[in-house]
Amino acid sequence: MLGKNRVIFPGDKVLLALSGGPASSAMLRQVQEGLSRETAKRLRFIPSLIYVDEGAVRGQSPAQREESLARMETLLQATGFPYHLAHLEQALELPASILRPGPGGSGEPGPSYKEAVEGFIQQQRQEGDRDGGTSLPSLGTRVGDPAAPRLPAAARTQELLRLFEAVETPTAREELLQMLRIHLILQTARTRGYAKVMTGESCTRVAIKLLTNLALGRGAFLAVDTGFVDDRHGDVMVVRPMREYMAKEIAFYNHFFDVPTVIAPPLPTKRREKPSIHRLMERFLLGLQEDFPSTISTVYRTGEKLSPAPAKASSESQRCLLCLCALDIAGEEELALEPTLITEEPEGNGCCQDPAAAGAESRAAFIPLLCYSCRLTFKELGPLATLPPYVRAEARRRIRRAEMEQQSQEVPLEDEEPGES
């Protein structure tokens, strides 16, 4: 897949996002094989790994989280790659800038893939062949403070749990988890200088995601959400190299090559709570796949026909606050967005609250900043006080900026001359 789509150039720093599941573990093994000396067409990028611990919201006890982290760290160390261990609680400390697209490449055209390969080989020759150029250490090293505690503070964990407990539906809970995870990975990539992020979504997962997002109202962004390349973040490109492999093929690959995996439990559901749209769509497609083996591949091929270039946002105000896609609200009447335009009183005591702060902290003020799908999710995320601080901070900044732009565009009427009647 990487050979057909030359988006990762020699010498690029690439962050591999691992969950411990079959697809991401198979992706890691294939990268290891591609970087080995015996491979005819070697991969020539510089890999690092990241694992996000989500045990707090998946119902694991501290002891179970410790055990999962120890198993995962053993697998990461065995690869010989540098690795990062992150916790979902760290997403609560992200800066507001994570919700802004980073600066993309300059307007000047970069070198071609062939020129990049030649330059990389020449650089390796200059450095000498003592260690084979891109050979890796025998044991992976953790990036960051090795003396840091394995689990975050209990107060942070409780704050994260309050955030997820306030969410009204399992569907919104799944969307919130995906958002926090990608923002945390994106922040690690930006601070550590990684230009690309590789995720392990398989063909089966892409097909499920395609129909799920369609049901969630993200039809305008299917090409970005499920395509091989996702460049909505500007400075960091997300690549999905496993999207042509079926889950069954990956399972056979892992079995025959003894690829170790660490399976995480699913998100717990509340009592008498209906399953999320994500789970329902997964059961539906996998059930069809049992009787009609071409179901997944047909859905996947249909998604391949989608335009890879969705509507571009010319300014920051035209991007969704949460997913960073271009706002699909050009004509609200045509899109039937009126049900999402909720109007509520600002939270708190209106008589004692600063009007500007009250306007910035009202739920209705957030709605114009969101795309159609994120509006539906936002309505189920619970009180504003439980939202991640970086989301509220960026929303306040955008609201204030929009108010300032509106005030600057208002031109006062000129007073009439005294002599005129």
Automatic annotation (TrEMBL):
Disordered: where is this region?
123-150, 401-421
Top-level taxon of origin: Eukaryota
Task: Give one GO molecular function term.
Answer: sulfurtransferase activity
Q: Which residues form a coiled coil?
A: none
**Key word Magnesium present:** no
How is this protein annotated for GO cellular component? cytosol; protein-containing complex
- Kindly state a single biological-process term from the GO annotations of this entry: tRNA wobble position uridine thiolation
Pathway, per Swiss-Prot/TrEMBL?
Answer: tRNA modification; 5-methoxycarbonylmethyl-2-thiouridine-tRNA biosynthesis
- One Pfam family from the record: CTU2
| InterPro entries per UniProt | CTU2, Rossmann-like_a/b/a_fold
From start to end residue, where is composition biased (Acidic residues)?
412-421
Q: Which UniProt keywords apply?
A: Cytoplasm, tRNA processing
Q: What is its main location?
A: cytoplasm
Q: Give its localization.
A: Cytoplasm
Keyword Iron-sulfur assigned = no
Report the family membership. Answer: Belongs to the CTU2/NCS2 family.
Q: What does this protein do?
A: Plays a central role in 2-thiolation of mcm(5)S(2)U at tRNA wobble positions of tRNA(Lys), tRNA(Glu) and tRNA(Gln). May act by forming a heterodimer with CTU1/ATPBD3 that ligates sulfur from thiocarboxylated URM1 onto the uridine of tRNAs at wobble position.
For this protein, the record's PANTHER family field holds: CYTOPLASMIC TRNA 2-THIOLATION PROTEIN 2 (PTHR20882:SF14)
UniProt-recorded name of the protein:
Cytoplasmic tRNA 2-thiolation protein 2
Recall the taxonomic lineage recorded for the source organism. Eukaryota, Metazoa, Chordata, Craniata, Vertebrata
